[in-house]
Specification:
The protein is an alpha/beta fold and 203 residues long. Helices cover 19% and strands 25% of the residues. It has one domain: OB fold (Dihydrolipoamide Acetyltransferase, E2P) (Beta Barrel), CATH 2.40.50. Strands 1, 2, 3, 4, 5, 6 and 7 form a seven-stranded mixed sheet that branches. Helix 2 links the parallel strand 2 and strand 3. The protein is elongated and about 105 Å long. This is DUF4920 domain-containing protein.
Amino acid sequence: MKYLLSFLAVLAVILLYFRFVPSAPINPVLPVEGSQKEVQGHNSEVPPGDENDSTERLEEGEEGPSTAVPPATPGQTYGAAIGPEGAVPMSALATALGTRDSAQVKLVGKAKEVCQAKGCWMTLPTADGKEMRVRFKDYAFFVPKDLNGHNVVVSGWAHRSTVTKDDLQHYAKDAGKSAQDVAAITKDEQQLTFMADGVLVQD
């Protein structure tokens, strides 16, 4: 009985302690700003030339590099610093590729269309009157949105690729095409594409 009374007394003291002595506040663990890696979509690159991945969607909600690219200036480079030495004209691309699906090459041509959302792709006319879309390795840099009409040198990998209907429609929206033009795209296309690690504005 004596032990039971002692136990009850100790228990009462413990209960009174927790009742009247405030406990230390518990601070919630807050996430550190910028500690979580952003998920990339539109141009977080996988092996160059793979048009069937979903990386072309990054620009729809991703910051990526700064979009404030100054107007095109002759002599300016984007991405890796490159020069015009060894560049072949777009008309020689078919010869450079031969029967291969891809080839590392430096090309010179006149920019035609440029992504008006961020400058995250551009096109170069090919010898057969079509266009080769140029994207930028690892989504690491953009080009000026007013680059159309300028002669440029691009260094990287040319590919023969299948571009899906969804990607084609997405590119058309980026280029500022009308809803009617976008809706007119109804099937995948075989196209030449290019993954550039560097771009030089010649003039």
